[in-house]
Specification:
By secondary structure, this protein is of the alpha+beta class. The chain has three domains: 6-78, no CATH class; 106-137 and 356-428, Phage tail protein beta-alpha-beta fold; 142-350, Jelly Rolls. The protein contains ten helices and 25 strands. The protein has helices at 6-17, 23-33, 38-46, 49-56, 62-75, 98-107, 188-192, 347-350, 365-376, 401-408, and strands at residues 113-115, 142-143, 146-148, 154-156, 163-168, 171-175, 181-183, 201-206, 210-215, 221-224, 228-233, 241-252, 271-275, 285-289, 293-298, 305-311, 314-318, 321-325, 330-333, 339-342, 357-364, 379-382, 390-396, 414-417, 423-427. It has a 19-stranded mixed beta sheet that branches. A three-stranded antiparallel beta sheet has the order 1-23-21. The chain has a three-stranded mixed beta sheet with strand order 22-25-24, with helices on one face. Helix 1 (6-17) packs across helix 5 and helix 3 (38-46) crosses helix 5.
Length: 428
């Protein structure tokens, strides 16, 4: 990462405004923007209307533009946001590539809120805290979950001590130092020592404002989002691996092969995710997996069930309908219970929550508030007629509630948080 001399910066500004940046020049400018303070300088320059006129002219005066650059560096101009419908706003380079923008957010967790363009009008960056004054601000969620053991007892994981929590068929259930739940794989000797013991199930439950990671006994890894639950055997059989999901989770499934037996050569043990969702009342919905990475969003308060594939292959089954999707595709089950496939799905947006970002892509305010309710553990109530707008952007999941609301307030959306911090009222 390196600074740019002022002359080079001027040249890049000119090409940026004219949409003439090469891939190499675009990369140079993005790298420069990562340096603390440079995003504010850049935002101030591209909102200088008189400067933009000069940038567009065929015979512009570089010396005058260079002087503006030097002045902006001294003033360190704050960022601005334009939110009214029909009001113009200059896009900054950070909004052009989601992949790079997401990385930018992760790298700069100290900057609380980054929102870029929304539908029909532009949004700049916002890095200032305290835009909304909220007494007793709401903190973000964290690693919180309850583990229900096969004997019916429960363990509150966020307050449990690190180390072994319980054991099963010779294996151990442990909480690691970094706050993860881990099942040690039972050996064949362990299984033989418990020949009459049936299949034992555990259930991991996250509350609103909670998330948790679990490594199952077969080595598969599951990230469980807020207000979700995962029911699973403490030890999988040699024929199948089946879990039940409510809410949202990201899976990285271990490829496990069954041992050869007389008349059988063995093979990969299939992994199945059964979904507990209101759309599954009539016909059970499930995802069949053979070693893959994917995200499933099956919240009851969402209209659609979504399965997004990053690696491998999965098939989505509902009733008599079965569809196989490839990496980069998303299977959606709509309220009419039909399965559709979306090519070129935004996989990074789908798993952004797992990567520490609450993101919104063409989402209306109600969609955003559902995520807010789950992550900040607040009840959301709408009053009056809320403007119909869709937003595209993201905010670090480490941010307080006021940071997110501060950005939305610029678009004539107002909020009131009741004193008990449990009810958030959304107003026009």
């Amino acid at each position: 990462m390196s600074e740019l001399d002022n002359q080079t910066l001027v040249d890049l500004l000119i090409k940026y405004e004219r949409d003439e940046l090469s891939a190499e020049e675009n990369s140079m400018l993005q790298e420069w923007l990562l340096i603390p303070g440079n995003a504010e300088i850049f935002e101030g320059l591209i909102h200088d209307e008189s400067l933009l006129v000069e940038l567009k002219q065929d015979h512009f005066r570089k010396k005058r533009i260079l002087a503006r650059v030097k002045t902006s560096e001294k003033l360190h101009r704050p960022l601005r946001i334009a939110g009214e419908k029909g009001q113009t706003s200059r896009r900054v380079i950070l909004i052009r590539h989601w992949r790079w923008a997401a990385a930018m957010i992760v790298l700069t967790l100290s900057v609380s809120a980054y929102f870029w363009y929304s539908h029909n009008f532009g949004i700049g960056l916002e890095g200032k805290k305290g835009l909304v004054s909220i007494a007793n601000d709401v903190l973000p969620g964290g690693n919180k979950a309850k583990l229900i053991l096969s004997n019916g007892s429960s363990v509150t994981l966020d307050s449990a001590k690190d180390g072994i929590i319980s054991n099963y068929q010779g294996g151990n259930i442990s909480k690691t130092q970094d706050g993860k739940l881990q099942y040690t794989k039972a050996t064949s000797a362990d299984t033989e020592s418990h020949p009459n013991q049936g299949v034992a199930y555990n259930t991991l439950i996250t509350p609103r404002g909670g998330q948790y990671f679990v490594e199952l006994s077969d080595g598969s890894k599951v990230w469980l989002n807020a207000a979700s639950s995962l029911r699973y055997p403490v030890k999988f059989s040699q024929k199948e691996r089946t879990v039940e999901l409510s809410g949202e989770a990201y899976f990285e499934i271990a490829a496990i092969h069954s041992a050869p037996s007389p008349g059988s050569e063995g093979g990969k043990i299939p992994f199945t995710v059964k979904l507990s969702h209101r759309l599954g009342e009539a016909d059970e919905t499930q995802i069949n997996v053979l070693g893959t990475h994917f995200n499933v969003n099956a919240y009851d308060d969402e209209l659609e069930v979504k399965a997004t594939l990053l690696e491998g292959a999965v098939s989505v089954t509902r009733g008599d309908e079965n569809i196989t999707i490839k990496p980069g595709q998303q299977a959606q089950i709509s309220p009419d219970k039909k399965i559709s496939v979306i090519d070129g799905a935004d996989t990074e947006e789908a798993v952004s929550w797992k990567n520490g970002i609450t993101s919104f892509k063409d989402a209306d305010i109600k969609n955003i508030m559902r995520k807010v309710s789950r992550w900040y553990n607040v009840d959301v109530v709408f009053e009056g007629e809320i403007p119909e707008r869709t937003f595209h952007g993201g905010i670090s999941r480490n941010s307080n509630l006021s940071d997110l609301l501060g950005v939305l307030k610029h678009y004539k959306i107002n909020f009131e948080l009741e004193s008990d911090n449990k009810k958030l009222i959304v107003k026009p």
